[in-house]
Amino acid sequence: MAVLSKPSTFRPSSQSVKAILNDLTSRYLQHRTRISRAVYLTLFVALINRIRNAIAEQKAASQRQAELRSKNVGTGSTEGEATSRKKVELNREFFKNLLRLLKIVIPGWRSKEFRLLISHSIFLVLRTMISLYVAELDGKLVSNLVRGKGRDFLTGLVWWMAVAVPATFTNSMLSYHQCKLSLQYRTRLTHYIHSRYLSHMTFYTLSALDDRIKNADQLITVDVAKFSNSLAELYSNIAKPVLDMVIYNYSLSRNVGGEGLFFMSLLVQLSANVMRALTPPFGRYVADEARLEGEFRFQHSRLIDYSEEVALYHGHEAEKDTLDKGYFTLIKHVNRILRRRFYHGVMEDFVIKYFWGALGLLLCSVPVFFKVPGVEGKSMGDRTESFVTNRRMLLMSSDAFGRVMFSYKEITELAGYTSRVSTLLDVIDDIQAGHFEKKLVSSADTEENAAVLRGRGEVTEGPDIEFRDVPIVSPNGDVLVRKLSFTVKPGDHLLIVGPNGCGKSSLFRILGGLWPVYGGNVRKPPFEDIFYIPQRPYLSRGSLRQQIIYPDSLREMRDKGITDSDLYNILSIVEIESIVDRPGGWDAEQEWTDVLSGGLQQRVAMARLFYHAPKYAILDECTSSVTLEIERVMYDEAKRLGITLMTVSHRRSLWKYHSKILQFDGQGGFVFTKLDAERRLELEDEREELELQLRAVPDIEERIAELTSS
């Protein structure tokens, strides 16, 4: 009788599973080369595709930003400092700005900076090769110790001490090269910025006609230094870890097999991507911190500049509130960065030191428990040597990868400094190209005034001064005079009068080339033929001689054939030759604004005018602190030297020295005519007499009313 059995599920035995694994292993070993090539080719294609997608995203983002900027073009569209508007990211804009700065700090392959980079790179390679040798030597030492080979162990110790000499020298040279590179970068960049910042009156225009940069002093002094340090550190902190990873991983792949290294690298890459996604935008934080530091410093410098006015108003409490607010805003931001760094540091330490360390131990244990094709050594000593060597190389490779990961923060910080320095250069380029951005708080938003501000006039050189239909615009964008026209020939001494804010200072700034010409035609002599003396003269840092010949240098003075005796004669004209008798004489160096009174400072400015003897001189209330006698001596001497004078003053004593007058009424109108000093004095006296009589009319009427009522 047939017995029917129930169908049972198939349960493979351990022997069958082992056989399957052995079969798969043998097949893998048979086609190992092809599989490895396919994997590496896939990784390469994936990398290329990722780079292509990143470039496409950056192009799209750049196009969107360009469209957004095109919508906001126009004077007055800016809202604050330029460096605060840029979003600091590791994008194409960052690499473009970095490449621009690199061309400045490393001008060519023959430059000193390039030679330092090559030397630095050689020592980086030497350091890696020494580390690789030390790893192998460490494995041999432990192997000899396990095997009990005392002689070989002591020989290894001797080699260990011998290799310490080039290793320590290499480390010191790496530190030296990094500091030298930072110093050279800063020197190159500072010289470049100084040449741009102090040319074409950019230093003035940057603060007067454009408000994108509020703290150029901090950008040039602090941010340039931080950028240079960050750039020099970044090369060392990236080049060496990358080189270490390539060499150590290659050696590890030979010892433990490329498959284990590949899977470990895959896990490391996944965890690194997670860390990168969770990394805060430290580059933007650094840029914001630098901006807040600059604003806080600017508030203090502003208090110093206006200390007398603040003291007269007793405004110390208000200024203290402003400074405290700026400081607490800065500290609040710094505390925010510290908290973000704390949380990010905990995550980085856990992943890099412990998670990746556990993966490394697994990888190093492969040659101990499994037979790796192509790796020799069956004894315990051989396995111990292999484990120690691999462990040492893995630790160094892991440390290198960790430094690469940590360098992402350094790169973002470099992006912040790069953004600020490149923004300064961009604004300087815009200003020198005639493009200004200023937040206007006046009537500049009216269509008529906006049309004037968008226009540009023509400036030509000639033997005289001529304004033809030139708009006069205030710093706030108010059009003070729509079409100013006048002519000053050599010898036509011009007196300019008018109420405050009528356009006198703006006129002089146009003549000095400080402000743009918004329309019409301006003909003026070359810059060196016009000399300006303000009410408060500028005294530079330097010797007494330099105060007289400023802005000439001692060599330029000698080239003109002028001696100290000639300078003494000039000082005697304005009766201040006695200051040469002070300790130090001509070479005395002091803070002259504190040493000399206001009247002496104005006399020094007069002496400076006689030294240069220009064709035209603009005198802006420059005799307000001197006596009428010194004023007379100054004007007579200036006329004797053939200097055509353009004076801004309300002192009646100066009328007789001028033949023409340009009078503003403060309402957009002006009168340009000949000046008859005697006739004008008579009319002025008559006007004052009538004003006195008119002021007496109410009293007379009141008295008449009293007499009538009585």
Care to describe what's here?
- It is a multi-pass membrane protein.
- GO terms for molecular function: ABC-type transporter activity; ATP binding; ATP hydrolysis activity; long-chain fatty acid transmembrane transporter activity.
- Residues 122-339 form the ABC transmembrane type-1 domain.
- Keywords: ATP-binding, Hydrolase, Membrane, Nucleotide-binding, Peroxisome, Translocase, Transmembrane, Transmembrane helix, Transport.
- This protein has 710 residues and is of the alpha/beta class.
- The chain has four domains: 28-73; 107-432, ABC transporter transmembrane region fold, CATH 1.20.1560.10; 445-675, 3-Layer(aba) Sandwich (Rossmann fold); 682-710.
- The chain has 23 helices and twelve strands.
- It has helices at 14-30, 32-71, 82-85, 92-105, 112-147, 150-197, 202-208, 216-256, 258-278, 282-305, 307-313, 316-364, 366-369, 380-432, 447-454, 504-511, 544-549, 554-559, 564-573, 592-595, 598-612, 628-640, 677-709; strands at 458-461, 465-473, 479-488, 494-497, 521-524, 530-533, 542-543, 589-590, 616-620, 644-648, 660-664, 670-674.
- It is elongated, with a radius of gyration of 39 Å.
- The N and C termini lie far apart (162 Å).
- Mean pLDDT is 76; it is low at 1-10 and 70-80.
Task: Provide the low-confidence segments as ranges.
Answer: 1-10, 70-80
Q: Which strand order do you get reading across the main beta sheet?
A: 6-9-10-4-11-12
What is the CATH first-level class name of the largest domain?
A: Mainly Alpha
Give the beta-strand count. 12
Overall mean pLDDT score? Answer: 76
Helix vs. strand class: alpha/beta
Query: What is the share of helical residues?
Result: 55-70%
Instruction: Write down the Rg.
Output: 39 Å
CATH homologous superfamily of the largest domain, by name?
ABC transporter type 1, transmembrane domain
Per DSSP, the total helix count is: 23
CATH architecture of the largest domain: Up-down Bundle
Percent of residues in β-strands: 5-15%
End-to-end Cα distance:
162 Å
Number of domains: 4
Question: Sheet with the most strands?
Answer: 6 strands, mixed
| Morphology call | elongated
CATH topology label of the largest domain: ABC transporter transmembrane region fold
Family: Belongs to the ABC transporter superfamily. ABCD family. Peroxisomal fatty acyl CoA transporter (TC 3.A.1.203) subfamily.
Subcellular location: Endomembrane system; Peroxisome
GO biological process, one term: peroxisome organization
Protein name: ATP-binding cassette protein
